[in-house]
Amino acid sequence: MDDEKLITTELVLTAEIYNKNGELQVDDLPADLRKHYWNNKEATVKRPVNITAKDLAELYGIQNAVEIAKSLPFLEYEAFGSKLQLTVFDLGAKWLAKHEQGTEHIKNNPVLAHFYENYESVDVSYEEASKKNEPKEVSRQWIDSLITQISGEEGSEDVLKLAHIIVPEEIEQTLDQLVLNQDQKDEVEKMVKAIQFRDYLTKIGLVEIGKLLFVGPPGTGKTSTARAMSDKLQIPFVEVKLSMITDQYLGETAKNIDRVFELARGLSPCILFIDEFDFIAKTRSSDEHAALKRAVNTLLKAIDNISLVKHGVLLIAATNHPQLLDSAAWRRFDNIVDFPLPDEEMRKKIMEFVLAEIDGTFDAAEIASITAGYSGSDLRMVVREAVLTALMVDRLVLTQDDLTRAVDEFNKRNSFHYIPEDET
Ligand SMILES: Nc1ncnc2c1ncn2[C@@H]1O[C@H](COP(=O)(O)OP(=O)(O)O)[C@@H](O)[C@H]1O
Ligand SMILES: [Mg+2]
User: What is the arithmetic mean of pLDDT over 259-267?
Assistant: First the structure.
């Protein structure tokens, strides 16, 4: 019950301080409270925040709100609304300050840190607490609220069928779990800096930044890297496949393109990821009529009109078939990032990542040496195959033999597999 008293007091004080102090923003609330009390329509946590027995149960699994209130001299349980009320604020504030774990809790709670910063005997900083607290922008709730607002505007519900939106907290593979070469790392880092120093870039007029084209064979990590940047930058990820927004009614295609770019602006700062970018080339070379051309031109113009520095939209396009793109398309990008098939060293590292959570002893270097021409995604498939084969005999521990056999299987099934000349 000791811990429960502490958590309850923290919660009640946080609500009280947040309610009374209009300077405090919704981002100052600890992420779990913010999520719990979130108001989707208003895209914020509305004041006043009340603490009910139900809140305590839902947030922390605390069932005995009544007893807790009774045991603390500054709390009262108001049966009518099943609310917990702070009767003597100063007493509660003092109690938390004196509690041996009080400071630890305050340090992770910007609302409390803001109050206790000027309180004798508690050594905390509001700035430090804010840095530790997850911002609202990374959460699904925040994006859903923005989408609710955008959808209120006419015709925009359709856009959500065209684009797939992912928020940073949903990203599965982070940058440090991807095996990238130095060039790739540098390009990612440049974009991180460009976003961080957006104001500076605006000031010096350097606005032609933030349009990347990822080029390389399938399964080399283009999509994963773009997504991981969303985690790194802590901004949402808007993903569209060009084949998906190309409507059989070509007039709609141009509209879809505009809708998607409009959505990205609405969610800014964000990453707009356009996959299968070569799809525009396909429509181009087929000599269908003017409507096709119009759609392509709409896309190129939309790309011209969006800017990382001005609109906070980082544009990343990806293609497996760069040879299909003409100069009009290439010109739109200020940086081309090459995603080659991984070399032996990279394959070894990728294997190590994929095998990290799997029981058994392996020689990742040996697998790397017999998998020339494999993409990162091929390597994952090899491991998946090995795992499933072992599972058929209920075996949870993998052996090197399982892996080499899975490579053999993979080669048989993909006898057309391409092997670069310098690795044969
Ligand atoms: N360099 C790499 N490092 C780690 N994993 C990789 C790498 N390249 C590909 N993968 C894995 O292969 C799968 C497919 O990658 P993906 O990003 O979809 O490739 P692409 O978009 O280039 O077709 C993902 O699960 C990804 O994690
Ligand atoms: Mg992809």
Answer: 90
